[in-house]
Amino acid sequence: MTTTVIVGGVAGGMSTATRLRRRDEKMEIIVVEASGYVSFANCGLPYYLGDVIEDRDELLLQSPESLKARFNLDVRVNTRASDIDRAAQTIALTNTLTGERVTQAYDHLVLSPGAAPVTPNIPGIEKAHTLRTVEDVDRITAALAGMETAALIGGGFIGLELAENLAHRGIDVTVLEFSEQIMAPLDPEMAIYVQRHLENNGVTVLTGADTVNITDKQVELRDGRVIPADLVVAAIGVRPASELAAEAGLEVGERGGIVVDDAQRTSDPAIFALGDAAEKRDAVSGDATLVPLAQTANRHGRLIADVITGRKTTSQKTLGTAIVGVFGLQAASVGWSEKRARAAERDIRVIHLHPQDHAGYYPGSSQIHLKLVVDAADDAILGAQVVGEAGADKRIDVIATAMRGGLTASDLADLELAYAPQFGSAKDPVNMAGFIADNLANGEKTAQYHEVEQAVADGWTLVDVRSEGEFARGTIPGAVNIPVDDLHGRMDELADQKVLAFCRVGQRGHVAVSLLENSGVEAANLDGGYLTWSAVNIH
Amino acid sequence: MTTTVIVGGVAGGMSTATRLRRRDEKMEIIVVEASGYVSFANCGLPYYLGDVIEDRDELLLQSPESLKARFNLDVRVNTRASDIDRAAQTIALTNTLTGERVTQAYDHLVLSPGAAPVTPNIPGIEKAHTLRTVEDVDRITAALAGMETAALIGGGFIGLELAENLAHRGIDVTVLEFSEQIMAPLDPEMAIYVQRHLENNGVTVLTGADTVNITDKQVELRDGRVIPADLVVAAIGVRPASELAAEAGLEVGERGGIVVDDAQRTSDPAIFALGDAAEKRDAVSGDATLVPLAQTANRHGRLIADVITGRKTTSQKTLGTAIVGVFGLQAASVGWSEKRARAAERDIRVIHLHPQDHAGYYPGSSQIHLKLVVDAADDAILGAQVVGEAGADKRIDVIATAMRGGLTASDLADLELAYAPQFGSAKDPVNMAGFIADNLANGEKTAQYHEVEQAVADGWTLVDVRSEGEFARGTIPGAVNIPVDDLHGRMDELADQKVLAFCRVGQRGHVAVSLLENSGVEAANLDGGYLTWSAVNIH
């Protein structure tokens, strides 16, 4: 009989344990968890705070008792792991309530300790809560009574979910984001939709907000602003909990993640690692990356159990697909953003579109903002971002699947997606993205919203091809108005000019550019149209 | 200057025309449409009948005038095409209102006339309506006043959409389906969920219903039953409108579709065909097939325009992805059903699962019924079916994309799908299907619901591994109850037996089978559990 010790009893650790038991009836399987709970719904914690999940028991998916009965697992909560002796293959396990310490031998050791919240070096930071465990949520819940204001340091996924949920509790919430945009995985012109939506729902969002002091009832920013805050939560991000691994001399990467091979083995072949504590390999670049997502942890847990029980299998590179919902708006991303691709100096094509989530003639449709980042060399999909009230989740999942399947951006045109007017369009938003990618791959020229100013300076004529009414309600400074349907008759006005055309979303602009180019006028279309330009430029 | 004549002005024809214009500013483009309307929302017609789409103008996406202004198209409605002279490259165009007939020369001819409703040879069938055009919907709307009962002949997509919409109008609806199940693209144990849902919403569904006579106020069935029907609509299906092509001597396939190559060219290289009138190539078998879907028509329209204007491109084989929504239930399918695969004598593996559409701990989740048909030889996904109140559209789109990308069924385990508790699970239903596929590919044995009786006859012991309470509320006849958590202690009861285990959905059954097999007991899991078995066997 062999023994496997698993450090960490949430997503990755528990997936390893249960799969191990299904593969091996005899193995001794010990799971140790530092907190008091295993297999809890960590992604549900903000929603319990917001009373969306009303029953605390809903968060507790399994208990040591239920796991013993079903899977014959030896699950030990409130137990800290330390002092791995790799030569002897032992690990020390200490009960944090009783202080009792045992030295446990293992044949295989699996490290799934997760990540720890990053706590910035700010005076008073000890007053700030973090949200990672059931104990954390209990502490915040206990503190909430009578609180009227909250400051959330960090405008990432957890920060935004907290903002929504605290607002649900009637608390006046301010999100403090150090950088110039919230939601780092998105590009700024996409993140702005989320910020506006938060603001429309009563949440104050401050970007470029550098917190310098936290006192009992307020947070002070470097620029002198003072934010009232009965409650402060730091949600800046997480760092891999790799201390145990590092102390044992296991290889740890630059960004603190435990280094593993494609069988999730650490530099010690008897020790595996997974989840938020371990490095992943990025699907776009192949480089090491940190992606703290439950799906990957679960998947790798199953994989490790298979490897330990003798099945050859290898892990996939990670796309980092993620989504957040705030006040009914969905924001999702997969792969690389434009800024990440540009930082890596990739030659890219960028596509913005703003279709309806389902056929406009069927009631209740809402607008989707979809962005695609494409490798200019081979039309590969590098990443996508989708924001909308409905159907963003579906489109990001479809694109993530296309990326996994190695489809090109133009191939998206050919996807056969289920269409009835409640669910999509005969040309689905993802198909439309593919059509545009195909046009670009075949030489159609577009300009990005941030290139307009330079284009005008370079002598391009900015032509608003929307209707006169739309033009009158607001346009890009310097634009002349020639509605697309008038373009045939007014072509002579544009002879010998270079035309940067735009409409509301890009479709009429595409028609105009086709007409102009086919008539011998050099023309480019403003990608994403006035909507994308104004998202950034109209406040 | 060249001339292209396009016969048919809805999805495929109009996509061809507008793309042609974007590619060629000079070409003469003539679109002729037999009905009075072009570019109308044919998938919206049932919803206009049901007052879900309230404004008739919403159905009319474009007009000849708007298409002239935007794309300089010569669009002629109420115009019948006939008498193609392939040698002379001319076609006769007759205005059906004035009788005026012209002979029009073409360089390229594009046939996109669509399909015609199948009208069965039943006495009184001339009293039945069909639903295909705006004129059809106007006729039914005009007839509806005072009507209290309706019989819909045909339980396919259009029939079910009509059932919902007529019920919305307060009409007592009976669906008459000739075969033993509604929704032919689904297998019977999946279609039954849709049938029950219709029945729960007040629609009468009669399968095995052979209509033999239609009179003014009723429909008579072969078995003698008489169905009251102020309104009768025949929605049995469609046949390709390929007469014009056939008369011109173009090759037409066995099932009536115009034969085309992968550039959508007919047997005459100057003539193209697409849409419901043309054959497609099936993605699973490569054989000719008929798939009357708007998405494919639009895609092929673009492709034909590209080919005519000199760009080399080829069409993809079709997966036939489709979805219908009825009374809030979604039913979707892609690729082949089990019955189709078995009819083709493919060696397959079949997977049923019943996960929640999003994390159960987050409010509002609902159950999804997901079926996967897998090639036993190479783990290829042959098809999928998904039925549920939410998220069926997303899962079928993901699987359709995986099929297009050539992913195997086991690869579905590795898809990184966007997870937050409102939108999915850390193990998404599609991932779960992949896990099960991976288990089956690695030798785990399952039995299908229709194999239980034979298995028991062959000496397998049927073990219900659910709780005693679940067992008491109903089980499969002959089953003994050993709850999965008791199995360790009661293993000796099963020594030397072959065990067919089952639980509610298949998960506990999987744990039980793992335990039994690892303990040396031959065991198989009932795929889809008691839920799939009872869908068919409990009425």
Automatic annotation (TrEMBL), chains A, B:
The keyword Flavoprotein applies. Pfam families: Pyr_redox_2, Pyr_redox_dim, Rhodanese. Belongs to the class-III pyridine nucleotide-disulfide oxidoreductase family. This is Pyridine nucleotide-disulfide oxidoreductase. GO terms for molecular function: oxidoreductase activity. Its cofactor is FAD. The keyword Kinase does not apply. It comes from Corynebacterium maris DSM 45190. Residues 456-538 form the Rhodanese domain. Keywords: FAD, Flavoprotein, Oxidoreductase, Redox-active center. InterPro entries: FAD-bd_OxRdtase, FAD/NAD-bd_sf, FAD/NAD-binding_dom, FAD/NAD-linked_Rdtase_dimer_sf, Pyr_nucl-diS_OxRdtase_dimer, Rhodanese-like_dom, Rhodanese-like_dom_sf.
